[in-house]
Specification:
This protein is mostly helical. The protein contains 3 helices and no strands. The protein has one domain: F1FO ATP Synthase (Up-down Bundle). One of its GO terms (molecular function) is lipid binding. InterPro entries: ATP_synth_csu_bac/chlpt, ATP_synth_F0_csu, ATP_synth_F0_csu_DDCD_BS, ATP_synth_F0_csu_sf, ATPase_proteolipid_c-like_dom, F/V-ATP_Csub_sf.
Length: about 80
């Protein structure tokens, strides 16, 4: 079922558009998983050592911003490949 839908989309819109949208979706999913793991690790670290909450929170925000930046870069690259 899904493969038939993907084949119809590829035939109608072109392989480049299909590849760009799949790549952007994978980048968004990867970023979501990465940010979730960062948050999970921060909460576990704070629960083990509450005195280091400020340092852990700062590191969590910095890493989250980096993951979002990489995801945005991946999405932009996918869409740039679309227009090449």
């Amino acid at each position: 079922m899904l493969s038939a839908i993907l084949l119809q989309a590829a035939a109608g819109a072109g392989i480049a558009k299909l590849g760009a949208t799949v790549g952007a979706g994978l980048a968004a999913i990867g970023a979501g998983i990465g940010i979730g793991l960062i948050g999970k690790g921060a909460v576990e670290g704070i629960s083990r050592q509450p005195s280091a909450a400020g340092d852990i929170r700062t590191s969590m925000l910095i890493m989250g911003a980096l993951v979002e930046g990489v995801a945005l870069f991946a999405i932009v690259v996918c869409f740039l490949g679309l227009f090449q």
